[in-house]
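Protocol step 4 of 6.
Sequence for Ferredoxin (Thalassotalea piscium) entered exactly as in the expression construct, tag removed. Do not edit the line below.
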Amino acid sequence: MALKILSACINCDMCDPECPNEAISLGEEIYEIDAEKCTECIGHYDKPTCVSVCPIDCIINDPDNIETEDKLLAKFFKMHG
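Step 5 output, structure tokens:
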């Protein structure tokens, strides 16, 4: 499943540069994750880097975008060949 940034986000700028899919961008109030681009770092790393660097642990699995590991990997190959 894609990830989601909660409203507790403090806009610390840690997650955006760490995303290898460029799925994270600053929204109107907080950073947001584009579910179409988020692969939870599958194809790049062992675990999501945004979650690893978030100092307040406000990035969670998005219950509105449930995807299997195979679907996330297919999304990675579609974006990166």
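Step 6, annotate. The helical segments are 49-53, 69-80.
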